[in-house]
Amino acid sequence: MGWTEASTIQRSLLEWAEEAGWEYIPGDALPRVAHDVIIEEWACGALLALNPDLAGDPESAELVLHELNQAVLDAANGLVAANERLTVMLRGDHSFPTIDGKHVPRRLIDFDDLENNRFVVADEVTITGAAKPRRFDIVYYVNGYPLVVAETKTPVKHAASWVNAAKDIYDIYEEECPNFFVTNVFNVATEGLEFRMAPIRAVPDPDSEIWAPWGSTEDDPKKMTGPARVERAARLLLRPETVLPILKDLVMFRHARDASEVDVKLLPRYPQFEAALAIHDKVLADRPGGLIWHHQGSGKTELMAFAAARLLRDDAVTTKFGSAPTVIVIADRKDLVRQTAEMFETAGMPRMTVPRNRRELHSLLRSGEPGVVITTVHKFAEAGHLNDRSNIVVLVDEAHRSQEGKLGDAWRAAVPNAKFFGATGTAIQDKDRSTFKLFGDPSDPDFVMSRYTPEQSIADGFTKPVVVEGRAVGFNLDKEALDEAFEELAAEEDLDEDDKVYLSGKASHIETILSNPERVAAVCADIVDHFLTYVAPLGQKAQVVAYNQRLVVAYARAIQAELHRRSAVMPDGRGREVGVVMHVADSKDTPKEYKQYLLTPEQEEALKRRFKKVDDPMSFVVVTAKWMTGFNAPIEGVLYLDKPAKETNLFQTITRPNRPWKNPITDQRKDYGRVVDYIGLAKAIGVAIAGPKVGTGEEGDLNITDSSKLAGKFVADLTRLLHLFDGIDTTDSSFASLAEAYERIPDGSAQRTDFIETYVALQTVWEFLDPHPMLVPFKQQYHWLAKLYESIRPKDVTKAFLWARLGAKTTELIHGHMSEVSVKSMPSKTVTLDAAGLALVKRIAEQLRLPEREPSAQDEGDIYQQVLDSIEARIKRRAAETESPVYQSLAERIEKLRAKAIENVEDSLAFLEEALRIAQDVVAADRAVEAGDEEALKRLADPKSGALTQIVEQNTPPGLHKIVPDIVFRIDRIVIEVAYTGWTDSDAGDKRVRRELRTALKEYGLPIKGQLFDQTYSYIRENY
Prior knowledge:
This protein has a seven-stranded parallel sheet. A seven-stranded parallel sheet has the order 20-21-19-22-23-18-24, with helices on both faces. It is globular. Strand 2 and strand 3 (103-105) form a beta hairpin. The two termini are 58 Å apart. It is built from 38 helices and 24 strands. Helix 35 packs across helix 36.
């Protein structure tokens, strides 16, 4: 029997449910008629058991059931609104009428003692009343109310995935049978390989962060994958201990503010669920607080809303402390208070207050009024002692920043017996400050109550990886002339030595370099060029971080001028605009040119709204401190960084673009965030990303990707993929070639699965990097694989998803060919080594046993020649000691390398890779001379033949090794005779070299297809 959804994941879900305490009843055995949503027999039994006064009042009980059923029928007028109404009823917060005209709250579910409820899981549950009967795979009932619907698909078909299951729920079941989802807490979609959960009316999408995975923050995302992750998720989520707390406290609703919005149901993600429950447990245990260390962008503000709701709704908290709690949410900036209040308000948070000033805050806290208070840390200044209550819970957002020192002491002194919970994405641990000691509970491992790492967040799709692209902004400085001119100035002004030291110190400040008009122009031109090439086609926006206010204004003007010069417009023809956000003092001393950027809070909010709209021409915003942190705009695709920063401030800044985002026009999703670094912060970025280590803490794997490394990964994956089709000519577009390719990846085989998975990953990298110089040589092979994939692509992956991935770039490509548009890159005049280049320099130094040194700003342009000088000095020294011709050959290779032009980063990496090969050969030559190994010296003296010898030896049967030199000589002679300058760019030249190589191999009885041919040809193409 073959695998089906019923025999695999559906059966497993039922087994896991029974183990978690659900009673299994087949759908056709449920005590209901086919059109019933609520199983009234069970609902009535629970109603009477949980509300004893109704036992002698059957008419009032009937009124409760009648109102419940009426609310179910209201789904036709709006499912989300009806679901919110039923959620209130199921929580026990709704007062039902009695027969004598009173209104009394009724308990429908016992959230305190779960044993008092009936938990049933049923499969193949049919509902009628729509256009045609529909059957749900699995339904989880509590006291007769269907709280969870799970749709499953088979795990053994490429064409079926969790997305198909989610589409069935969204497009069919919720549309045709909305009544059945009125009592729904969440839905589940799975095919056994991935597991996702979502609230009602969540649009399905392969990259959706709303259809969220479930799991545990204790799990390693690298190890817990596939079916194991599915089982882990199902066992954690689909149990009464999870479903009921979500229903009782953690379901929220965001109401539409105008006609452009719709009502939305909000659910916690699993790290938010874990942390919210952990905060609640610590409060009940009367612990002092705890530290929540969750990755930047993973929803800490929402977490605080969920935690506050659970604390305020729980009678156990009120009972323990004698009164309802007060939850204080502290941010360190007014704009963050505004954002947090908006989040809490749209989430329907009860009893919320935002004090307007210190006096109002102090009065409110002295009164002991329960509810939520949202305020800044600064309003606690000079507060003194306000309240001794122990049921005050303080939730501190961005806990790493200004919650220490005098301000931190102030709010702790104001409410000394409160519980303090800090939420941060960037914990601090240094000799002066420790977020861990300030908020951490000593009883927690490493002082951390809840840890959700960048790796986990990215693996779950809640945040995106950040690609850091290094830029080198070089300049020439005539130091001698500068010193001479400075001395002349000093003489003219009669400066003493102290004056000269002071002036030179001020002039050497980094602002002097950054504010050079030529540098500003060059950087802004590069910013616009990069934006128009990589970011604008995706519909995303850009943030620019400049050094100070003067440079913010200068950059904004330069970028606007460059956009105008380039005629950069929106799809509707409107010109792209640049906004400025910075703190401007409203005083007479403020320069006039800055006052135009003085924004009221309302104006700043309006600018944010413009920036977040995909069809608004506000494409850039230039900042210096504001919006570097605490600014959440998923549409931001790139951050251009030209300001020094370090540690937590740097981490928060570079994670601005890491929020998931979908273009609402093209449906294309963000795969990466980008940071373009003009200031040289690669090492600092690495330290910031890794984060501090506490106790035995974890290793902080970096979550940044150097673009050159990404290109290298593309080439490696492409090579691995092409191995599936060894011997097939990818330039052959015939049917026979396609048929041969199909034979390598038969339907249902492991090879087919490997091909699909690897190609999809490859496609993502290609779409991100294109255009990139490193991709050019592989374009033909990639397009061949793309056509092959398209021919076997799962046919029910809709065209909409294809367009979502590639639509924006395709449209841009068409537009680019509609007129004579010319966009040229602007390679830097001097090239700074990126991380890969520095690694190569260090490897060369290791080979030659040279002292390591970092290139300074003054000698960046000469680093290449310095490397060659070091190698050449070693060659000359050895050549003077021996007569071996190998050193003459090595010296000639050095001279050829000196003549190579370096115009961009790719050139610099290629240069250093060849320098490393020469350095390695120098060391090998020294060893061969000492050992008297003439054969090795011969190979080193003729590196092409030497490399060919190695390739042939590795791919030739042992019996033929004696004739390897003859084979190599034959190949070398033939290629030299056949090849000509530019042959690699000519189809005729390329075919002739291939043909002659096959002839040579055939003469010696060697295979003309496979690894020997491929490696030999690749080497010839690169080196002849």
